[in-house]
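Design job #97: recover the sequence.
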């Protein structure tokens, strides 16, 4: 999927291929950006995946990148490659709106650390990717920019909150997108749209930035980020294939001790001399997989075995089930701190979604968990992190569904408590991982009824390359899952 196809338009080619083409002057960054802009003009009016697109500014940045090539200087790993930036991430001169109308005119005065890393790698920002209001739904619609559609099926969610990132990639608007993930917001959209999403280890990609500000009746208020943002949320890449995702991840990796969870350097992974083992975790007791999800897992297992991996199966892993339940406690109680701001500034959809979220959490943890329960939840999290790292070691991965269902129908979280409960149960593979801070990758393995179906690989902390190796082994044995190969 990442190899050069001579007849392909520039927007169709992989970032790995395009970097080399720019470096050797086979093509220019300006030509590539123009090709992507043409593709955006063709597809974005229907999909609404990218917003605040500034063609002249982007073309000027591409021409600057071409001048650097001509000057013969050292070039970064993403030199001249267009990358979209999410609307909840600071990009100098652009509003960090988060899909909230009240924040539409609040332009960032500096780049977030992850955007700085992309620029230093030579990337050319192109467009802002859409998200739900406050970036806290598994759907991507907001009152400011409207609804983002899934290119495969407009009636199904493109995922959230990085739905614009995944939708734009699947349609060919850019080869790489930036996203962030605290409850599946990179991995789930990637699975919904048939692309690759990487959730790095917490601390690998800098999430550094100043506290958020919001207007309230009493004036500007500084909103310190709650603990789960620091210890569960990550920035990371989405791409159309594994090699591009790896390239983008390495470019974004930024040791940064300004962050509470930051590290001064990444540990060197010591590889096992024997084959890598993969434990397949099909589900938990709360939900039954859609048959297409089990078929996707079967396909991934067959391809891993063919590549020499040792695979074993378990029906469920109680550690992951418990981690998913902890997510419903820790994330929910942290959201409670900023709920007044969301209630004041958010649209009706996010208020309804959060009402359902709090209702689900109340079923699991009670209406208002005590401080003791909350503290014990953080303590239990630490124990689960240790146990999962001991289980994985240096030579084991977990293979899970991306979700127990196919991509949800649009606005399924607005349909009432019963459907909300089903969504949270189905999303256990997405919610179990962030609360523990481990790295994970989702990638497509099949098309079922015209919809992509993906799987998730989870590895030990800072073992992203081990996970990506396994993902590459699956992708190498999977027919390309791309819209333009399906007659779309």
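Job complete. Output follows.
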């Amino acid at each position: 999927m990442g190899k050069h196809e001579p007849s392909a338009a520039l927007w169709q080619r992989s970032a790995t291929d395009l970097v080399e083409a720019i470096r050797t002057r086979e093509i220019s960054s300006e030509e590539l950006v123009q090709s992507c802009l043409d593709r955006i003009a063709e597809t974005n009016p229907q999909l609404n995946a990218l917003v605040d697109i500034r063609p002249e500014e982007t073309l000027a940045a591409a021409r600057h990148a071409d001048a650097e090539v001509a000057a013969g200087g050292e070039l970064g790993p993403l030199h001249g490659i267009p990358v979209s930036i999410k609307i909840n991430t600071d990009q100098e001169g652009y509003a960090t709106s988060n899909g909230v109308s009240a924040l539409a005119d609040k332009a960032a005065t500096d780049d977030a650390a992850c955007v700085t890393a992309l620029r230093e790698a030579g990337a050319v920002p192109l467009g802002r990717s859409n998200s739900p209001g406050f970036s806290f739904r598994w759907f991507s619609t907001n009152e400011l920019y409207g609804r983002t559609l899934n290119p495969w099926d407009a009636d199904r969610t493109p995922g959230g909150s990085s739905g614009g990132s995944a939708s734009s990639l699947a349609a060919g608007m850019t080869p790489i997108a930036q996203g962030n993930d605290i409850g599946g917001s990179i991995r789930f959209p990637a699975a919904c749209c048939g692309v690759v999403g990487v959730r790095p280890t917490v601390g690998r990609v800098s999430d550094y930035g100043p506290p958020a500000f919001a207007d309230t009746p009493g004036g500007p208020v500084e909103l310190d980020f709650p603990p789960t943002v620091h210890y569960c949320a990550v920035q990371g890449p989405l791409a159309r294939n594994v090699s591009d995702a790896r390239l983008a991840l390495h470019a974004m990796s930024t040791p940064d001790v300004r962050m509470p969870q930051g590290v001064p350097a990444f540990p060197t992974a010591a590889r096992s001399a024997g084959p890598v083992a993969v434990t397949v975790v099909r589900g938990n007791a709360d939900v039954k997989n859609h048959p297409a999800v089990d078929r996707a897992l079967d396909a991934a297992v067959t391809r891993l075995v063919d590549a020499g991996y040792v695979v074993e199966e378990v029906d469920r892993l109680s550690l992951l089930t418990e981690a998913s339940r902890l997510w419903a406690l820790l994330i929910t109680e942290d959201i409670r701190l900023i709920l007044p701001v969301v209630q004041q500034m958010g649209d009706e959809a996010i208020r309804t979604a959060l009402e359902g979220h709090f209702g689900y959490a109340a079923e699991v943890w009670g209406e208002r968990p005590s401080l003791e329960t909350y503290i014990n939840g953080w303590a239990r999290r630490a124990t689960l992190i240790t146990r999962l790292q001991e289980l994985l070691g240096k030579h084991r991965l977990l293979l899970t569904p991306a979700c127990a269902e196919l991509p949800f129908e649009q606005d399924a979280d607005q349909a009432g408590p019963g459907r909300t409960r089903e969504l949270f149960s189905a999303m256990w593979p997405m919610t179990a991982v962030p609360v523990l801070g481990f790295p994970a990758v989702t990638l497509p393995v099949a098309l079922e009824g015209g919809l992509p179906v993906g799987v998730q690989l989870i590895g030990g902390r800072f073992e992203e390359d081990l996970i990506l190796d396994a993902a590459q082994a699956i992708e190498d044995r999977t027919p390309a899952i791309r819209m333009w190969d399906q007659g779309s």
